[in-house]
Amino acid sequence: xxxxxxxxxxxxxxxxxxxxxxxxxxxxxxxxxxxxxxxxxxxxxxxxxxxxxxxxxxxxxxxxxxxxxxxxxxxxxxxxxxxxxxxxxxxxxxxxxxxxxxxxxxxxxxxxxxxxxxxxxxxxxxxxxxxxxxxxxxxxxxxxxxxxxxxxxxxxxxxxxxxxxxxxxxxxxxxxxxxxxxxxxxxxxxxxxxxxxxxxxxxxxxxxxxxxxxxxxxxxxxxxxxxxxxxxxxxxxxxxxxxxxxxxxxxxxxxxxxxxxxxxxxxxxxxxxxxxxxxxxxxxxxxxxxxxxxxxxxxxxxxxxxxxxxxxxxxxxxxxxxxxxxxxxxxxxxxxxxxxxxxxxxxxxxxxxxxxxxxxxxxxxxxxxxxxxxxxxxxxxxxxxxxxxxxxxxxxxxxxxxxxxxxxxx
Length: 410
Hints:
Helix content is 36%, strand content 15%.
């Protein structure tokens, strides 16, 4: 199927052709016609499937058909709510790219940045507003945001939004918009609380599920290292020096952990950037820019960077600290092996994280490759060469016959 068959106008097709898009992804193919039919939707789709374009393109089409001739006095017709600043900025960039040959105006507002420039942008009038919940409500309270003309409301990464405690804000924002609006909810997963939110806000929504049969891409080689917590930094340095090259994201559980590892890697001569919630927005944006431009080839982050951030050509992901939620593990390693490319992930498991890895492997439906190394979990144990026994891959994984050849520990 081509984008032309999706009834998009020439201005949008020209913009997406310049972006390099030739055919719609599965989520775009399923979603765009229903948005154009003005249906409420609940869409379950992983990051990297093209879901931003799945709602941005039809929204632009609907607004293009009746856009104001003048840019003065524009009212917000479409509102996109995002859980994080980085994702909000990325969504705005996509909208601007797709709408470059239209007169539609897009703006983004978020916390952690000066509010005055955002007020100025809103005063000039916008058609499409992308916002984080807190800053949106703040500016609405100050009467700089008027939502009475909103025709389309999008809730992106809804599960993360609720995990971050935004449910009350989201419900309040929905009430500030007209009751007749079209509503689109996008989420990587649809747990019970997201289903509840959808039932509360949306009007007889159509459900679209494009979640792959396997939770993670088959092109990601996933390795597991059992290692004492005190030896994780040594193992990380060893892998970086000898085996892991290219563009790498390392996930840590806490802000303190991010700062500590960043200092260690900088002291060892690595080019590092970092992301966590205590950093200012300008510093966070600069860190992402440095990583995307390869000024820094290692990005250390808390889960603020695990969802929705579109970074191409990530070669490897290291789970320095394992998450206690299996979906978070999937979102983290989903930063690599995008658009059909291959990638690698490395999970460090300390003694107190064994239950986490057990839950993760149950969720995945297969066991990760256990790799022996110089820093075993049992300090008295000697490193052993790990050997696969027969076929242990399941659920869509190809069987791997046991080999006599020794497997290298890395």
